[in-house]
Amino acid sequence: MTVFDKSTEGRTGFFLPKEESYGYEPSDVLPENSVRKESPLLPQLSELQVMRHFTGLSEKNYSVDGGFYPLGSCTMKYNPRLNERIASLEGFSQIHPYQAEDTVQGALEVMYNLQNFLCEITGMDSFTLQPAAGAHGELVGMLLMKKYFELKGESNRKKVIVPDSAHGTNPASAVMAGFEVIEVPSNGNGRVDLRSLGEILDENIAGIMLTNPNTVGLFENEICEIQEMAHDKGALLYYDGANLNAIMGHARPGDMGFDIVHLNLHKTFSTPHGMGGPGSGPVGVKSILKDLLPVPVVRFDGSKFSLDYHLPNSIGKVRSFYGNFGVFLKAYAYILTLGGDGLKRASEMAVLNANYLRTRLSKLIPTAYPGLCMHEFVLKGSKLVSEYGVKTLDVAKRLLDYGIHPPTIYFPLIVDEALMVEPTETETKEALDNFADTFERILSEAKEDPNILKAAPQKTVVGRLDEATASRKPKTRWSKDT
Amino acid sequence: MKKYAATHEWVSVEGKTATVGISDHAQDHLGDIVYVDLPEVGKSLKKGDVFCTIESVKAASDIYAPISGKVIEVNEELDSSPEKINEDAEGSGWIAKIEMSNESELDSLMDLEAYKKHCEEEG
Question: Which of B34, B59, B60 sits opposite A468 (nearest CB)?
Fold first, then answer.
């Protein structure tokens, strides 16, 4: 039931002052086409009704605080409450973006230090905290690449290479920045096929976008060869930081030869995400690109922090004010809490947890690629279709009945009936075992009575949604007549 | 005559005109199709060019021209009823008609039997 359906004519939660108390009519001060002829169709409820309505909705939600959330590629780790406490300190939460710099030195210091921490963690020379999310970071990275070649007089470089396993946002960001995308296929081991890469690399390529470990959870172990091939042709190498959680403190994109890096603070650095943010996608660059970064950049002259807007070759402003500052605070608190050793240990546990689950689940369904994985792995569900007539989608829906958020499904596109599992480091062995046991139970159900899976979910607030009709004929607006 | 491309498009030839679409195997893998971005009539295509994009509940997929030529007609019904491809991919769910510029390209495409084998190997 929507809040509109609960409306009763004349009921109200609070009282507005009567119009005449203003001393003028709306039509006295507004142009005619801006004055309403009739009242807006707002729901009419008491305050308590409104409270119950939204509390009820929130109770129907599923979150990492409520249960296991192995959504591959999304790094749904626990968001420590300490981060929230730091971010809500008055000195941070009650400041205004237009305050004079010398009254917000602490806030600027956090941003400055965070830039430096991210440089150290990734091996880059300079960072901007401006981008508001991962895909925004990708776009900024691509705009930096474009500007770099414009300044170099190499505007002929109009193409960007993206692996066939990449996140869809990679090619989309490259196209948004005005590049043409060329896809490079993966080899049988789930890594970039070097021979194919060699064939498409030439002087018209601006760069290669890579995720490492890649989207099937494998480390691109020929990254040194790839960076040499790219740089030999004068192209730049872009690092999508989606999967940094697997290597943090152990390997640095900067050392691998990457020129531009974006990170997702909301994934790797434990700030809340999902359902549209707020995220944060800082971008780091090697020194050859540092003068092109978006403004403002936070500087420190030894005694005072300031915002520098004077970068003559900057790609410009990419976000209002200074980026998602609340997210910086939480990521900063996370980095300080864990310290260098803690971050390293987080990566180790993420990889260990993934491999533990991989070992248990691969006895039930084959993995898409053999061998050890990094922080996530991909199962190939095509066996379920041929043996039991159930699809990956059915397994995912059945997991909901057991109170578990399903893994990512049908991504990456190169794996048939893909199921992508990322447990993260914050789960216990008991939680992993419970997931594996549940998975096993669902597969025996598939064997005995596949209809149980096809009819799932049964125990959720709503049953299986008709996604096709929702996409073909979306209803995005409530109206009185529906 | 009907032929298939390794990238899962089909071509049906009548005189100089080729009707193209995606195979039944391809629609089954894409799942419920929700949007078809049709090519423009009059557009010249080279074999292997992306000439159409299909969005399903799972993914957006590029569709490649199985032969070279000029687009002379598109299946406008797909604008309002993209599910036609799920219902009848190799019939009323056709995508475009192409006036072929190089009929010899047909020789490099597969017949049904070879295509079936190709799908099994890809499986």
Answer: B34
ipTM field: 0.79
What counts of helices (H) and strands (E) characterise chain B? 4, 9
Per-residue pLDDT tens digits for B4-48: 999 999 999 999 999 999 999 999 989 999 999 999 999 999 999
Total tally of structural domains belonging to chain A = 3
Q: Do A13 and A144 share a domain, yes or no?
A: no
Report residue A101 as tokens.
Answer: 């710099």
Among A273, A306, A337, residue at a domain's last position: A337
Report if residue B113 sits inside a domain.
no
Which regions of A212-263 does DSSP assign to beta strands (E)? 236-240, 260-262
Closest chain A CA to residue B58? A410
Type of residue found at A174 = A
User: Can you give the residue range of the structural domain that contains A378?
Assistant: 344-470
| Per-residue pLDDT, B123 | 64
Range of the domain at B13: 2-105
Domain-ending residue, one of A337, A357, A387: A337
Judging contacts by C-beta atoms under 8 Å, the chain B residues touching residue A411 are 59
- CB contact (8 A) between residue B32 and residue A468: yes
Residues of chain A with pLDDT under 50: none
Residue A74 main-chain phi, psi, to 5 deg: -105, -10
Closest CA to A177 of A135, A137, A143: A143
Pair A425, A268: CB distance under 8 Å: no
pLDDT at residue number A100? 96
Asked if residue A478 belongs to a domain, the reply is no
d(CA A373, CA B53): 33
Mean pLDDT of B75-102: 96
Q: Least CB-CB distance to A472: which of B60, B82, B123? A: B82
Q: Kindly report, residue by residue over A425-456, the tens digit of the pLDDT.
A: 999 999 999 999 999 999 999 999 999 999 99
Number of domains within chain B: 1
Task: Say yes or no for a CB contact (<8 Å) between B34 and A410.
Answer: no
| CATH number of the domain enclosing B19 | 2.40.50.100
In this structure, what CATH number is given to the domain that contains residue A323? Answer: 3.40.640.10
- B55 contact residues in A (CB cutoff 8 A): 471
How far apart are the CA of B31 and the nearest CA of chain A, in angstroms?
9
Residue-level pLDDT at A338: 97
